[in-house]
Amino acid sequence: MENVLRPLIVVGGSVVLTLVVGWAVDQMLRRTDARHHETPMWGLLRRGRVPFQLVLCSALLRGAYDEVSLFRDHRVGIGRALTLVLIGATAWLVVRIAAAIVQTSYSRYANAHRDPARVRRVRTQVSLIQRVVTAIVGVMAVSAMLLTFPAMRAAGASLLASAGILGIVAGVAAQSTLSNLFAGLQIAFGDMVRLGDTVVVDGEWGVVDEITLTFLTVRTWDERRITMPVSYFTSKPFENWSRGSAQMTGIVFFHLDHTAPVPLMREKLRDILRECPAWDGRDWGLAVTDTTPSTLQVRALATAKDADDIWTVRVTVREQMIRWLTQEHPYALPRVNTADAVLLPSRRNGRSPFDGAPRRVHETPRTGRG
Fold first, then answer.
1. Do residues 282 and 325 lie in contact, with contact meaning Cβ atoms separated by under 8 Å?
2. What is the distance between the alpha carbons of residues 150 and 141, in angstroms, rounded to a whole number?
């Protein structure tokens, strides 16, 4: 009877104690979060209640397993399994706590500063720091799990003895991965590109949607995702429209007839921009920038506060200006000049109207007598 009751008491007591302590800690964090609305720390820490309970339960079971006379033939295996669970749950809990601290720091910074560029820079750095911490904790947890096996400890000693050769081989094999890793850190702390920046990469316009230690994702205007290694942004040129100020200047070109009423178009452009909410009022203009034998090139210029608004301004100006020209000044639209075809004069006296030279007549020489 004792062999049955003792395992039940130890296992059941550990589970009950884990549930009670987990519930108490969760209630304490909830009340603290309700009292402190200025920081999300306590609400974020509540996400770690599951790994906390796993850590507590596995630690209690691992410590009390020696007192339980159960499955003695599998004592080593069960003890090692509980140790592995304890290590994994501890790493999970550390990652959740680190994420709560990092997110709280970012929230405080974002609330204290209203500069969007600085907030995006800190957000990018915080995101990559969190990923670095998660990677380090994960590697340490896996290493600790492997070291619980005696065979792996012996293999570890052998690997340390040949660390120099293995380091060279690993460096050559992981050259691309390491370059992307260092490029990710360079992007995070070099302020080259940030989350939310508007960029043009390989002719594609989009917004930086995700930055990791190895790749970067750009979300295009048509909801596509372009994924590329972060080393691309440290080795090739690209356009960052959000660098510095988000304000932009947009240009619309019109190809018109030489009779186009440019002064009237200038006044119409001013009226169009006044009725366009996306125009920020900083600057506008219209000028003839080029001419060809058949058309004029007219450039309309306007400003907006960001890339989205400048797109709206450009399409609005293009659409309303063309409609106005079509209705009020159709003669200003480009035309193709045509004329009646004139027949070329016939060739007389062996002369060509093009070269003005007599045409040579080739005769076949006669043979024999005639």
1. no
2. 17
- The residue assigned the tokens 């093009």 is 354
Report the alpha-carbon distance of residue 214 to residue 122 in Å, rounded.
19
User: DSSP labels for 19-64?
Assistant: HHHHHHHHHHHHHHHHH-TT--HHHHHGGGHHHHHHHHHHHHHHHH
Provide the percentage of residues in the chain whose pLDDT is more than 70: 71
Mean pLDDT of 99-116: 77
Determine the Cα–Cα distance for residues 21 and 52; give it in Å rounded to an integer.
10
Query: At 285, phi and psi to the nearest 5?
Result: 180, 160
pLDDT tens-digit series, residues 217-233: 888 878 888 888 877 77
CA 169 → CA 162, 181, 182, distances in Å? 11, 18, 19
* pLDDT given for residue 157 in this prediction: 53
The pLDDT tens digits for 239-282 are 887 776 778 888 999 999 988 999 999 999 999 999 999 998 88
The pair of structure tokens assigned to 350 is: 């062996």
For residue 349, report the phi and psi dihedrals to the nearest 5 degrees.
55, 30
Report the chain's terminal Cα–Cα distance, integer Å: 145
DSSP letter at 368 equals S
Enter the tokens of residue 263: 């002064």
| Residues forming a β-bridge with 207 | 198, 219
Q: What is the distance between the alpha carbons of residues 307 and 295, in angstroms, rounded to a whole number?
A: 30
Identify the H or E element spanning 130. helix 116-147
| Rounded alpha-carbon distances, angstroms, from residue 142 to 58, 61, 177, 181, 324 | 17, 21, 20, 20, 69
d(Cα 287, Cα 298) in Å, to the nearest integer?
Answer: 6
Place of tokens 């012996």: 154
Give the CA radius of gyration of the chain.
38
